[in-house]
Amino acid sequence: MKRTGLIFVALFLSLVQAWADPALKKFTERADSSLVAFSYRFTVPGKIPMKGSGTALVQGDAFFLEGNGVEVWCDGKERWTLDREGCEAVVEAVGAGGDFATDPALLVSSVDEVFSEVSSGAMAFQGKTLHGVVLSPKVDAGNVTRLVLYFQSERLCGLEVTVEDGTRTEFVLSDLRFSARGPLSRFRFDASTLDASWVLTDLR
How far apart are CA 72 and CA 75, in angstroms? Predict the structure, then answer.
């Protein structure tokens, strides 16, 4: 959940479809041509609630996410997931196998093919009334059954992910900033920084 939760944050800043909803359309058009930075926190309600927080940089289908002791580096071709405390790293090819159910990064780069807009309007989120946009998968999207994006004016400030068993994860975004795009090298992990104490799993 830690790694997948982090990647879902990046998912919504890579939307490139010409959505009908004006707030979503304006936001995604700007995000598509920018480097986007933000902080986030997430909660998963239940008998044993989960929560966490982190920061992210997103540029198209490339991103760097850090939170809950996990780092995810993705340059659009390879994805490195690091647990620095446990000295464990996993490297994968983005899109290998073409399976949306097992490759969240493929969702990032293909979201316009995967999701469709269902409805939009005033909705309650985190004690506020915001403009919500409901999306649903139009093809197999793993276990994701429903997504809701929450906007205040044109600013994305939250999202909600619901999966098949009914579990709902809420993300609250803050300090969201747009800036000029830079080189993809900033999202590419330098494997030479790992010493012999690390356990590396190579799934490429």
Answer: 10
Residue whose entry in the numeric block shows the structure tokens 């647990």: 83
pLDDT tens digits, the chain, 204 residues: what are they?
455 555 555 555 555 455 677 887 787 778 778 898 889 888 887 777 888 888 888 887 788 888 888 898 989 889 899 999 999 999 998 864 444 433 333 444 455 567 788 888 999 999 999 999 898 888 776 677 888 889 998 788 888 888 888 888 888 889 989 999 999 999 999 999 999 999 999 998
Rounded Cα gap, residues 97 and 159, in angstroms: 28
CA–CA gap between residue 103 and residue 7 (Å, rounded): 10
- Amino acid in the structure at residue 47: K
With CA atoms as reference, report the closest residue to 114 among 99, 96, 92.
Answer: 99
Tokens in use for 122? 């005033």
pTM of the model: 0.77
Contact indicator for 97, 111 with CB cutoff of 8 Å: no
d(CA 198, CA 196): 5
Instruction: Identify the bridge partners of residue 36 per DSSP, sorted by sequence position.
Output: 58, 178
Number of other residues whose CB lies within 10 A of the CB of residue 176: 17
Round to whole Å and give the CA distance between 57 and 42.
17
